[in-house]
Every structure is written in C-alpha cells, then in structure tokens.
Write a structure and sequence with these properties.
single chain, mainly alpha, two-stranded antiparallel ribbon, 13 helices, 2 strands, about 0% strand, globular
C-alpha cells in the first residue's frame, strides 16, 4: 500500500504522505462512527437511542466521508503504479504487490480478524475454543469474507494485477494526457452512470467477499485516474487554481444538493431504500451526488495538502511511516476502546469522538511503532 511518493526524476512528495496518513485517521473515524450510528457494519455496534439531529450528524458525516476517502486512496495508489511497473517490470511489480498487499490481507484474515472477533467482539463462536472456532471459520468458507478493512488491499491487488496485464500487452506507452475540465466532467458523468447501473443490479450495502460493489465504479475510475496522473505528473503540474475550481464546482454542488436530496427523496419518511437500488430517481440522484463528492472533495484535499501540508516534518514522517500498520491493526484497538467506554455516559457523540481519538492515538503512538519493530512485520507493514 505504501509507495515511494515521488514523481519521475523528482524529489519525494511529502504532501501525498500526509494525505495518506490523514485518510487512515479518517478510516478510524468512520469505523468509530459506525459503532455508534444506525448506519454501516462493524465488529461491535452500540445501537444507542438517537434523536433526529444526531441521526442527521452521523448520516452526513458517514455519507460525505464514504463518498471520497477510500476512492482517494485508490487514486494515490494508482499515481505510483506506472513508475513502480517501469522500475520492476511485470514479474517484479506483481511480486512486490503480493508482498505489500496480499500478505497483510492474509495476516488479517487468519490472525487479526479472528482474534478480534473471538476475544473482543464475541462473534466467532465464542462458546468453543479458539481452535474450534477457527476450524469452523475456515471450513464454512467464512474466511473469504473475513478481510475486514483489508478488503482495500485485496481490491488494490486485483486492480494492480489488471494494470500489469494491461502494460504487458503493450498498452500504456502513449503520450500522457493533460487534465482538462471537460475530461473531469466526462469522468464524473461516467462514474455516476456506472454507479447507478451497478446499484440497480446490486443494491447499495450488498457485500460480495466483504466488498461493497456499489462503490467500485468510483474506485476503479479513481485508480485509473491515478495512473493517468502518475504518467502525466498531475500531482505537481495541475495548477492550484484549476484544482480549486474543480473542488468548489463539484464539492459545492454536492453540499448544496445534500439537504434537498434527503427531503425530496423521502429519506426521513421511510423511503431510504429508494436511494440504494432500482430504477428510481432517488438512486440516480444519489449516484450523481456520491460522485460529485468523490471528485470535488478529492480535488479539495489534494490541493489543500499541496498548499498547506507539504511539510516533511518529523511528526509527518512518523505518521506516514506508521500509517499502513495502523490501517491493518486498528480494528482490535478500536473495539477494545469501545468496550472500555461503555461505562461512560458521554452520549453517542461524545463516546464516538473519544473512541476515535483514543483509538487513533493508541494505534499511531503505541501499537504500530511496537509491531513494526519485529522484522517480519516491519517488512510487510510499511
């Protein structure tokens, strides 16, 4: 997952390291929010009684976050795929991706995830011994959906293999393209249409091997856009003014569209399912909205970090070095923190914020640096 964040023949792009680390902090925030909200799936759900303002807060926070943060990570990964392939060739590129992505996913599927479920969440046949629970976990095929947040690594490994085959076929050697407003608009429209079509066949929220396929049109498109960005050096060359205009245009449209979409579509009157599937205008509008968020907020984050968070300070280097390890190991830490906070009467929002802060702090400040000291883990959690 972690790449040498440098352009062709140029120095390291510290702001991309900072983007990546920040997105992983947001991953912890998303999982903490799911714990206390009515939306999403996680190892432990608290199911508190929520009034309308709190429901709206969690819905807005999770929907906007889901709209862009994982897609942006796919974009960043795509940016460095061309250079990695150029340096390593077909076999070396795939070998490296299997080590960096496949091995951590296996570590999670067969160790971290089951330990979290058995000893903390109690959802892995806790009445039996751990060995018996693991035997049932493997024999039933449940392990195929046991990737937890490492679904991202599995998906990125698949995307990387497809890219390697594409390059091996002789494609991808033409002149790099410049980024244009018309190109962005065309991409956004194609992403929205593809999202709508996928959701008509596979309702939003349906997981196949722990992958939410309704989100994959944006993930695939952003990975492909990252490849184009890497070849065209967009991360450096795209003018800030252009990026700001794209952020304001698409992100602003998404913000303005949010409340009317909820009210007119019947989100507060029991019609929430209409946004997730079928030939309904709510589904089409929600698909458009999600991709407006994806494009607008991704531009906004990238240009903001390039302008204001381009420092390679000691703290930034520490966060970047530990970011992937945190991504892999944070679930049991967050679950443990959540369980420990049950006796506190801070309310759902207070517990959510405290759980997020404590889990992020423990993951980055203690757990990740410790596990990365063991050489076998240091080699893969980097």
């Amino acid at each position: 997952m972690r790449e040498d964040a440098s352009g062709p023949g140029l120095g390291r792009l510290a702001f991309i390291d900072n983007v990546r680390a920040s997105m992983i902090v947001l991953v912890i925030g998303m999982h903490a929010a799911v714990t206390y909200s009515p939306f999403g799936r996680w190892y432990v759900r608290e199911h508190p009684t929520l009034d309308f303002p709190r429901i709206l807060f969690f819905l807005t926070f999770q929907a906007f976050l889901q709209g862009f943060f994982m897609a942006l990570l796919f974009f960043v990964a795509g940016c460095f795929a061309p250079g990695a392939y150029d340096r390593k060739g077909f076999t070396g590129f795939l070998r490296d991706r299997c080590m960096r992505l496949g091995v951590p996913a296996l570590l999670y599927v067969f160790l971290i995830g089951p330990l979290t479920e058995y000893y903390l969440a109690g959802s892995l046949a806790a009445r039996n011994s751990f060995g018996q629970a693991m035997e049932a976990y493997v024999a039933s095929g449940r392990f195929l959906s046991g990737t937890g947040p490492l679904w991202f690594c599995v998906a990125l490994l698949i995307f990387s293999a497809a890219y390697a085959l594409w390059r091996a076929s002789g494609a991808g050697r033409g002149q790099p393209h410049d980024l244009t407003a018309s190109g962005v608009a065309a991409a956004m429209c194609a992403m929205a249409a593809a999202t709508f079509l996928v959701k008509t066949a596979i309702p939003s929220g349906t997981a196949v091997f722990n992958m939410q396929l309704a989100d994959f049109p944006s993930y695939i498109a952003m990975f492909a856009a990252g490849i184009a960005a890497g070849r065209g050096d967009w991360l450096r060359r795209v003018p800030s003014g252009f990026a700001v205009r794209m952020a304001l245009c698409y992100g602003g449209a998404a913000v303005l569209m949010w409340w009317p979409l909820l009210v007119l579509g019947g989100a507060f009157s029991g019609n929430g399912a209409a946004y997730g599937t079928g030939w309904r205008w709510q589904n089409a509008a929600a698909s458009l909205w999600a991709n407006l968020v994806c494009i607008g907020f991704s531009f906004g984050v990238l240009v903001a970090f390039r302008r204001f968070a381009a420092s390679g300070s000691r703290f930034a280097r520490f966060m970047s070095a530990n970011a992937f390890a945190v991504y892999v190991i944070h679930p049991p830490i967050l679950v443990a923190v959540t369980l420990a906070l049950r006796s506190l009467a801070l309310g759902p929002l207070g517990n959510f914020l405290l759980a997020w802060g404590l889990a992020a702090g423990l993951s980055f400040g203690l757990a990740a640096p410790l596990v990365r000291r063991w050489p076998p883990l240091r080699a893969i959690l980097r």
